[in-house]
């Protein structure tokens, strides 16, 4: 049927894609006359091995028979057809060394034509002596860049020629014993090089003791066993299985986007010095034509694959063929970048044929160019180079030294386990070193990447690098590798990148790393490493598969699946809720087994459980196919369960979402325009350039650049303006202030503008402008003379000073701290400096009055744009044009700058969470979480969580109110409520009906609660009666559903429904669950009964009183909790159009309102029932309030304001 075919095509690949036997058939052996013969494909074994068959009751089984996709197949025609055995002259059957199957049906994605050359890269020879078994490794890449991996075992088998073989002109005796070589190649989607080598080693032991007539059946049975092995999902669980005498371990991937790592990363460090390793990495990053050489074919793939891991998260984008046979050497003639490998014996012909190849001799440890004796490529940047070499030289790479003190292992599997543990430790250290190298080279790329407009400013990035590193970066920035890296950065965001960058072994080393690299990653790194859902330094668990059944019998395979399901169920039942990452892996594997065994509904249940354990490994494609393949009866059975019905609905919604055109996230380089720009294009170009993001500021800049002309900016003006801005920016960065001057400035203070040398009332020097003050850099002996801080300026006057017959334009400044005026003969610069100082003063005044430092930052931007406009236009209208940018100077004339005294005294600070957002977003929810003093040394400060209207959650350090660089996206809908459940869980209720669970340490979301059917509107936490009682949380949705949750297990304890039009929020007070709804107000004595009372809108339980605010009127109503018949008092809120939010702080109720003109906050005394304060909070309605330990109240405003205000509590 079509459904099973669909299942088969999309099913995740298991360990085995195919097993191929290659060599010389018996018929051809009889005819051979030379020792060097041509190999051919003899057998191909690929899933399915167990065919669909009827059960005893006659029903058909239509499901995937193994942990592998049933692949599309094609026929493969061999060179000749011959019988599989022959009869000798004595009349006895002469069994062939390996029987050749006449009909080969092969998976469509496997190229069997080239396989004999790759499995016998030295050619296949008939010899008179047996050789040792030999293993090597292959990588196949299709036209789409998808890789398949092969492990090849070559082994010798004896045979007796019937008619003799001619060798060196002599006919050999037909009774002489000769040897031919056969290859068994296991092909897998995953690079399990060590594990598959172990599998082949185990099989060859069995093969050498068995009869030849059983060979094909044995290979098929071996292949069928490997098809029963599931691939572990990314995370802390490895899969183990027995192939006697070995116990074989399949390591999981470190991360969803990392490849499997089943190889020894220290091999390149044994072959090359650290300096040579850096040369190889540099060659790869610059996309050179790289050729690895060795006399050992096995080393070629293993070493090349190590370097692919060393450059992670960057990915090689070109042909990757680490093993080339002699017949394939023409591949090296390709004109594009490639990474290939060949035998050292081909060195001369390869080097002579082509110039500019990077030739890497693994055996000798040399890196050369085919055109010279040394590699002429730019070095890796010096800082990164020195750090890497220092760390690489400290590596302990010799296993024998590590086990000197250990006793001998009497069990081979104990010995292998000890070796794996040592290798895992060494691999982790090497991964850290190479990732640190990547950080050192590329960490500041993000500073020059405009995420919103997908533009990377390569010129500015280059200017920020050391001059000696320019050649390296110029080559790297032009590569496909780097552009793919930018695309990944843009699609996956900053957290995704940094999650790759670091995983240290100890907290000490983690903290040390954060101290060393003061980049934008610092805060995120410390959070991710210390408390990510898991890291390589955390203990690895293993899950052992049951013993393999006879793999070619359907009933035994089904019994094996049932045993596997039982073992996984047992593992799930014994897992603790605290280790949800491990539990998620067991659910994933059980879902996989249930899918294979045809138990689709059970599989859906298992994958549904991933929402509560770890969404990162959710198999969306497989789930989509499972849902599509559900027979009608099973679908009805699934839809009878609400959670599965919801899952099926969501899968169908996601399928429609995937049907839309996919955004590939391509990042382009910033380029200056080549045609005239109208307003819309100009705004976009300026935002792409990174000069400024605010649309209003850019529109004012457009007006300034188009004064007195048609409203469009010509490309020459834009180019001149851009270059002038960047040159001024660079000049400011190059200002080298003496130590005696720096000690007068605060830590983050920088000089943004310097005048030319002028005469002033304090002497001759240059006037310097920072974001805080003006000061004079005196000439001669460099010194510092403070002129004024911007907030102290009282008067600014432009006049002229007579000198001989001239009148020199002079700027005069009167400050509140000095009686005398400061005078500076600024001459032609006078008008510009006057404009800039006025704007800075006005911005400082507004920033102080409104306690909003962003005003000062915006004023500084305006002043610098004035400077750039004047420098760009260089005409009489330049100063007039610059006045268009005097936003704050004009604003003080348009509206009173005075903030009401009560507001000014209560307001502590303002922050803008939409600083990097265009346009600004509404602040929908705020939540304060206290820090723990013991953890503050490692970043455990209190935090402010801010949910914006686009589903984005930002995090602020509540000790400094500074925004942390890490944020998390939880869906795309509005977020309605947040609740800190415990130290490991922060719940967020969303309009899309999900509750998202964030890990507060790693600031990552990989769990969801999906039981609600409508918008989640409220969350509440029940107080624990004692330290042994379990934590219980409540959630509600707009349809009136209330769910009671066990926090530790995330299981539903109870669910009930409140009859209402819209349930808005819930609170727990004195053992009662209060449900606030649009139509009425319900109090429930949780969890036993409830009482319906009066019509209310927003409620707070305080002491024995119920405070309610009306959403459509400026009124508060107060009830006694024991008498809910009518309110005993009503409080009118002047100029309030409706109450939006309320909280209790100490003996006050803070009420956030939608004002008739602006958003207001009312502070009401609960003892006297009077309004104590009216705070002019925001320019839009107050959306949310939260308390910070009763010391501060924080308010967030709707989109037109989009800011957070921090208020002092008295």
TrEMBL record:
Coiled coil: none annotated. InterPro entries: cDENN_dom, dDENN_dom, DENN_C, DENN_Domain_GEFs, TPR_DENND3, Tripartite_DENN, WD40/YVTN_repeat-like_dom_sf, WD40_repeat_CS. SUPFAM superfamilies: WD40 repeat-like. This is DENN domain-containing protein 3. Keywords: Cytoplasm, Guanine-nucleotide releasing factor, Phosphoprotein, Repeat, WD repeat. Residues 83-95 have a biased composition (Polar residues). GO terms for molecular function: guanyl-nucleotide exchange factor activity. Its main location: cytoplasm. Residues 69-497 form the UDENN domain. Forms oligomers. Interacts with 6 of the 7 known isoforms of 14-3-3 proteins. One of its GO terms (biological process) is regulation of Rab protein signal transduction.
């Amino acid at each position: 049927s079509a459904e099973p075919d669909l299942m088969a095509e999309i099913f995740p690949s298991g360990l085995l894609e195919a097993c191929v036997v290659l060599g010389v058939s018996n018929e051809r052996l009889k005819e051979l006359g030379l020792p060097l013969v041509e190999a051919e494909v003899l057998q191909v074994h690929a899933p399915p091995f167990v065919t669909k068959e009827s059960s005893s009751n006659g029903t058909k089984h239509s499901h995937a028979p193994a942990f592998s996709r049933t692949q599309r197949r094609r026929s493969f025609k061999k060179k000749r057809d011959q019988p599989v055995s022959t009869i000798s002259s004595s009349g006895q059957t002469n069994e062939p060394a390996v029987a050749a199957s006449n009909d080969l049906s092969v998976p469509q994605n496997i190229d069997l034509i080239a396989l004999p050359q790759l499995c016998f890269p030295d050619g296949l020879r008939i010899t008179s002596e047996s050789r040792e078994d030999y293993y090597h490794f292959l990588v196949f890449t299709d036209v789409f860049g998808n890789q398949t991996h092969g492990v090849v075992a070559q082994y010798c088998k004896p045979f007796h020629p019937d008619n003799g073989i001619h060798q060196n002109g002599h006919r050999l005796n037909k009774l002489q014993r000769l040897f031919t070589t056969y290859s068994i190649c296991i092909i897998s989607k995953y690079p399990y090089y060590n594990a598959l080598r172990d599998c082949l080693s185990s099989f060859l032991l069995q093969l050498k003791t068995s009869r030849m007539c059983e060979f094909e059946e044995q290979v098929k049975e071996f292949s069928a066993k490997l098809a029963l092995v599931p691939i572990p999902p990314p995370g802390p669980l490895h899969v183990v299985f027995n192939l006697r005498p070995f116990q074989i371990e399949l390591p999981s991937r470190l991360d969803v986007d990392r490849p499997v790592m089943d190889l020894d990363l220290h091999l390149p460090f044994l072959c090359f010095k650290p300096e040579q390793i850096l040369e190889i990495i540099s060659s790869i990053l610059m996309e050179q034509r790289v050729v690895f050489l060795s006399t050992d074919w096995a080393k070629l793939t293993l070493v090349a694959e190590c370097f692919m891991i060393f450059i992670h998260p960057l990915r090689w984008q070109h042909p990757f063929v680490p093993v080339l046979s002699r017949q394939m050497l023409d591949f090296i003639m390709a004109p594009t970048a490639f990474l290939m490998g060949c035998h050292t014996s081909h060195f001369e012909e390869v080097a002579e044929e082509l110039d500019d190849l990077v030739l890497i001799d693994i055996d000798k440890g040399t890196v050369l160019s085919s055109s010279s004796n040394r590699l002429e490529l730019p070095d890796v940047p010096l800082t990164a180079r020195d750090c890497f070499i220092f760390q690489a030289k400290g590596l302990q790479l010799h296993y024998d030294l590590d086990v000197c003190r250990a006793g001998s292992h009497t069990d081979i599997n104990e010995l292998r386990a000890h070796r794996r543990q040592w290798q895992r430790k060494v691999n982790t250290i090497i991964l850290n070193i190479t990732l640190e190298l990547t950080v050192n080279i590329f960490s500041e790329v993000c500073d020059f990447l405009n995420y919103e407009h997908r533009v990377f400013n390569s010129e500015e990035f280059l200017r920020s690098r050391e001059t000696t590193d320019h050649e390296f970066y110029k080559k790297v920035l032009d590569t496909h590798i780097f552009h793919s890296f930018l695309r990944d950065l843009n699609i996956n965001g900053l957290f995704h990148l940094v999650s790759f960058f670091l995983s240290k072994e100890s907290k000490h080393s983690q903290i040390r790393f954060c101290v060393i690299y003061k980049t934008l990653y610092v805060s995120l790194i410390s959070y991710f490493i210390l408390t990510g859902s898991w890291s390589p330094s955390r203990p690895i668990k293993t899950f052992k598969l049951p013993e393999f059944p006879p793999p070619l019998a359907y009933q035994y395979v089904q019994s094996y699946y049932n045993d596997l399901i039982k073992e996984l169920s047992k593992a799930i039942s014994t897992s603790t809720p605290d280790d949800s990452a491990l539990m998620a892996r067991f659910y994933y594997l059980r879902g996989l087994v249930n899918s294979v065994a045809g138990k689709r509904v059970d599989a859906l249940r298992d994958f549904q459980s991933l929402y509560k354990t770890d969404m990162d490994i959710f198999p969306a494609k497989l789930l989509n196919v499972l849902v599509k393949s559900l027979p009608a009866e099973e679908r009805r059975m699934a839809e009878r369960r609400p959670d599965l019905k919801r899952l099926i609905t969501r899968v169908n919604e996601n399928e429609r979402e995937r049907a839309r055109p996919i955004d590939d996230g391509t990042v382009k380089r910033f380029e200056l325009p080549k045609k005239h720009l109208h307003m819309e294009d100009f705004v976009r170009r300026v935002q792409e350039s990174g000069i400024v993001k605010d649309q209003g500021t850019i529109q004012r800049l457009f007006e300034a650049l188009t004064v007195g002309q048609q409203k469009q900016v010509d490309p020459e003006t834009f180019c001149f303006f851009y270059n002038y801005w960047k040159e001024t920016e660079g000049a400011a960065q190059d200002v080298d202030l003496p130590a005696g001057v720096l000690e007068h400035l605060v830590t983050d203070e920088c000089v943004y503008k310097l005048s030319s040398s002028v005469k002033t009332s304090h002497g001759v020097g240059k006037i310097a402008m920072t974001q805080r003050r003006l000061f004079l850099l005196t000439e001669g002996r460099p010194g510092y003379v403070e002129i004024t801080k911007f907030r102290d300026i009282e008067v600014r006057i432009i006049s002229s000073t007579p000198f001989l017959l001239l009148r020199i334009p002079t700027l005069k400044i009167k400050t509140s701290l000095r009686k005398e005026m400061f005078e500076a003969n600024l001459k032609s610069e006078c008008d510009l400096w006057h404009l800039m100082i006025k704007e800075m003063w006005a911005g400082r005044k507004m920033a102080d009055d409104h306690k909003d430092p962003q005003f000062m930052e915006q004023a500084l931007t305006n002043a610098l744009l004035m400077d750039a406009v004047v420098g760009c236009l260089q005409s009489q209208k330049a100063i007039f044009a610059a006045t268009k940018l005097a936003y704050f100077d004009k604003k003080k004339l348009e509206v009173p700058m005075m903030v009401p005294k009560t507001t000014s005294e209560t307001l502590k600070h303002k922050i803008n969470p939409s600083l990097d957002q265009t346009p600004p977003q509404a602040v929908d929810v705020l939540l304060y979480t206290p820090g723990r003093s013991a953890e503050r040394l490692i970043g455990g400060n209190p935090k402010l969580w801010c949910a914006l209207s686009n589903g984005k959650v930002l995090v602020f350090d509540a000790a400094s109110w500074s925004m942390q660089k890490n944020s998390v996206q939880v869906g795309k809908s509005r977020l309605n409520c947040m609740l800190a459940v415990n130290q490991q869980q922060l719940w967020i209720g969303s309009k899309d009906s999900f509750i998202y669970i964030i890990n507060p340490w790693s600031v990552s979301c990989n769990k969801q609660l999906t039981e609600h059917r409508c918008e989640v509107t409220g969350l509440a936490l029940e107080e624990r009666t004692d330290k042994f009682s379990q934590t219980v949380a409540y959630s509600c949705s707009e349809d009136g559903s209330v769910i009671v949750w066990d926090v530790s297990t995330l299981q539903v304890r109870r669910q009930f429904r409140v009859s209402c039009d819209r349930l808005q929020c819930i609170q727990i007070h004195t053992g009662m669950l209060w449900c606030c709804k649009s139509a009425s107000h319900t109090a429930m004595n949780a969890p036993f009964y409830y009482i319906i009372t009066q019509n209310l809108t927003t409620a707070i339980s305080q002491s024995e009183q119920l405070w309610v605010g009306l959403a459509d009127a400026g009124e508060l109503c107060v009830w006694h909790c024991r008498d809910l018949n009518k309110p005993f008092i009503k409080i009118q809120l002047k100029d309030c159009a409706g109450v939006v939010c309320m909280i209790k702080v100490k003996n006050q109720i803070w009420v956030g309102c939608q004002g008739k003109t602006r958003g207001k906050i009312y502070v009401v005394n609960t003892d006297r029932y009077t309004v104590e304060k009216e705070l002019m909070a925001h320019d839009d309605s107050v959306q949310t309030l939260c308390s910070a330990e009763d010391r501060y109240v924080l308010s967030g405003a709707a989109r037109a304001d989009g800011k957070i205000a921090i208020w002092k509590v008295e």
